[in-house]
Structure formats: C-alpha cells, structure tokens
Specification:
The protein is of the alpha+beta class. It is about 35% helix and about 30% strand. The protein is built from 14 helices and 27 strands. It has an 11-stranded mixed sheet, with helices on both faces. Strands 18-15-19-20-21 form a 5-stranded mixed sheet, with helices on both faces. A 3-stranded antiparallel sheet has the order 4-6-5.
Amino acid sequence: MAKAPQNAISPTRAEDYPEWYQQVIKAADLAEVSPVRGCMVIKPWGWSIWENMQSVLDGMFKETGHENAYFPLFIPMSYLEKEAEHVEGFAKECAVVTHHRLEPGPNGGLVPAGKLDEPLIVRPTSETIIGAMYAKWVQSYRDLPILINQWANVVRWELRTRMFLRTAEFLWQEGHTAHATAEEAIAETRQMLEVYADFAENYMAMPVIKGEKTSWERFPGASMTLSIEAMMQDRKALQAGTSHFLGQNFSKAQEIKFQSQEGTEEFAWTTSWGVSTRLVGGLIMTHSDDDGLICPPRLAPKHIVLLPIYRNDEERATVLAYVDQLNAELKGVLYHGAPVRVLVDDRDIRGGEKTWQHIKKGVPLRAEIGPRDVAGESVFLARRDQSPKDKKGTPKAELVATITTLLDEIQANLYNRAKQLRDENSRTIDKLEDLIAYFTPQNEERPEIHGGFAYCHCADDKAVEEELKKLKLTVRCIPVEGEDEPGKCIFTGQPTQRRAVIAKAY
C-alpha cells in the first residue's frame, strides 16, 4: 500500500510552491475561482481576514487625520488621456464600457446596443476622477490639505492571474491627498509608508523593507514611489504596499489650483497610496506550512476553537455546559482592545476530521475538551505555530488568565520566523557573476527554491532595467533606512550612494 502523506497539503512547499499556495487557499476555504475569468469568490473565512485588515487599517488612517469617501467606478476615457504617462502605464490593463444596453440578437441571444458617446473605463485606479473633484473643491489655500481614503474594487485586465495576488478584479483602499506645498505632500507620502510598515510588521507579523522605487518602477505619473517589500517562503519578493508622491503632474492635468496665502495662483501637490487583497496572499505565503494556513492572531477570524468530545448524551450535556462556561469566560477577556474571538465547534462529524479542518484554517489555538478535562477543570491545548502533535493539558483558569499572552507569543514567533528566513536568505553581492549564480537554480528543468534578496549597488539607469529583465530580476527598492554606502553599479560601473534590493518577485 502507498504510504500515507505526512502533511495535510499536497504538494508541499518544497515540491511545488505555486501549487502548494493554491491548495492552502482551498484547504483553508478562503476563496475559489469564479465563473468570470480572472476573478475570485472570497469565502467567509477569507473575507473575515480581509475584514480584520480593513478594520485595523481604517482606524490607522483615521488616526492620521484621513476621512473616507467614495468615487465613481466608471471614469471617462478623456480623464485618463489628460495625464499621458498615467494612461500609458495602465492602457493595456483597462476594461472599457462602450455600450449602455442589450437587445435581442438575430440568433436569439443578446447583443450590445446604445453606443456611448464616450467610452468609460472601469476604475483601474482613481487619481484622474478624484482629481477632477478636487479641482472643484479647491479654490484657496484654506481648502487644503484634503485627506481622503476610499475602500473600493478596481479592475485591471491581467492575463495571468493567481488568487489574492493578481486578479482581474480586486479589493483595496486608495488614499488621495492634496497639499499646498511639496514638503507637506512628501511628508504625507512617507507617513503612509510608515503606517503600512507598522501594519505589516505588528499585525501581519510580516517583516518588510521600506524603500524607494527606481524611476522605471515608479507608479505611472508619479515623481516618487515608496514601497514596503516582503520575502515570501519561496524567497521571492512581494510588494505589499505603495505610497506615491505625485508632485504637480496630476494637479496640472486636472487643474487642481488654489490661491496661495501670498495671493498667487498655485497648483496643488498630491499623493496617492494603497494596499489591496494582495495582503491576504502575502499573509498566506509568509506564515503557512505544509498543513495549511497559519494566521497571525491579531488578524485571525477566530483566536481559539473549543472542540467538545463526548460519547453519549449524558457526557454531551456535561461537556457542553463546561464549554459554554469557558466560552463566556474567554469572551470576557480583551485582546488588544477587543473580546477574544471564540469558536465552539459542536458539529456532528468525526473528531479527527474536525480538528484537521481547524489546523488547515490556521486557528491560533485549539482546545479539546472531554469528560476527563471537565473532571480535571482543564483543557487539552494546542498551538498552530507548533506541531499538531504538541498538545498539553492546561488548567481552565490558566488558559483564561494567559490566553492573551499565548496569542502574543504566537504573533511574535511568526514574525521572528519570517525575519529569520529573510535574514538567512539575504546576501551582499558586489559582482555581476555572483548575482547571476545566486539566482540560478541547480536544476533548470525543475527549479528548487533558491535565491532571495541581493543587496547590490545598482544605478537608476534604463540600461540596468534591460539587463535585469534578461535575468528575470527586478530592483525591489532602494532602502530608506541605514547609512549611505558609496559604491559602483555592478552593471554599468556608475557611482551609487546606496545599495538596492534585487530579487525575483510576484
């Protein structure tokens, strides 16, 4: 007989990382492919993770003075045409509405009718439509700054899609601000990068590098793009958030102008910044293992699942009464300002199957409770960041008293593991041949997980971009933290002041 698999997820990360990722999503019941090409259905467990992300980020935005609003899904094509570099950057990804009704066709089907006077673009990003509104709202320096965020969906017609990471339609937030001076706008751009880094590290338990993009990696039409970059378990980089200083490019195109304090007419300085459901993909790939999803406690849909175990009606009544009492006590505990999220799973299915469902869904803590546990005023406790076999009897009172400590220990452990992986797979490289060797798999026919982050001197030069494309590499960012370290570009020999992070990327 074939040997039983040792893990819940097949293939494993080492065997086929892309397929492992898809299988984790399926096993954790996070999302599934929709009938619409390139789009996904986010299921309740996956939605709960995104909802928790939204809640935290929304609070962080409001703490920094931003307000929520909403702008149209459809953008007149002429709006995009006003900013040439912007439209060029998104043109190939735009979905376009050209008609406004359907009529019966000659063969019994439906055909588009009622051609629009001007095509409408389904929102790929909102700089142009929001800029048109800001132009109406701003007349004086007293009207500035405008600090607005919107939660929305966007459409970018991707050819190669992967759930959460790259889909034709995805969910995000996009902040758009307008300021009287360049200094204020640049400070806003940097502030929001710090907000994203804080969220990634302290809620997602995902260590990130904060840095500036090269000229060819900037957001189309921006003067400066900052990003946070994270290493996934296959050692590829994931851009997890971006913040853009747009200068006056969009305000001149959209005529966002105001009378200054000195009485002169000036154009506003604008920014935009955003993160998306791609963060759910980043969470999966940063922490999950070959048994399924591992969810950081601060974003987990449930912090603990209580699993009653009994053999007959008498035991059932005793165990469930005990579980109900424990449930109430745990919900009375606050974890980072909100009640502990408890799930009681009394479904009539086999205990082993039930346990493995919650392992695959990444619930941080599992507590099995049978008649012996009731008699001993205890639970049989397991942590998702440890082996499924690592369970221990824990007094009920101790669990209630220490559950927040346990959750914080899991949160810290996940962050430390991810940071250790990044540190162990980062290299300082000064020669082009060493860079090529670092990113060359030993087996070209079936590439193993290899490479990582390479810290190199790299000039902001179009010739460098072309060379990197040949190697299927990208400059992720030029880190903003740390000291200057003058050197020479490994591609062109040009002088540079800081090292850049080069990696394969999603």
